[in-house]
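User: Predict the complex with FE2/S2 (inorganic) cluster.
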Amino acid sequence: MSADPPIKRDPTVTEWDLGTIDQIPDQEMHRVRTPRGCVLVYAESRDQIKAFSAVCPHAGADLSDGYAKGAMVMCQYHGWQFNLRSGENTARGLPGLIEVRTEERDGQLIAHFPVRKTS
Ligand code: FES
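Assistant: Here is the predicted structure with FE2/S2 (inorganic) cluster placed in the model:
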């Protein structure tokens, strides 16, 4: 279970600072709570960083509470497993994770979320 403090949900947020890139641990899952939900960050190396929504594509569980080892995370509810290098489901044909677009800005990893229509 994550000890991060809760952050109020805000669907209008389109950008969020996921942290200092140099402080993201290599080759292990890193969890960041944002107003758009939890994001899973995985750095194979400083130049190969991926970020994904922590929502399990099976039934919506929070994968930040799942079992993680290296580049793999397993959902605690029904055991689906995902490769954090690619977001792919380890079971062929099953849906993978939704990638969160990121950019490096002044040493920070910035997430970009899609704009939500309000009408
Ligand atoms: S909710 Fe994640 S495997 Fe079912």
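The domain at 26-112 is CATH 2.102.10.10 (Rieske Iron-sulfur Protein).
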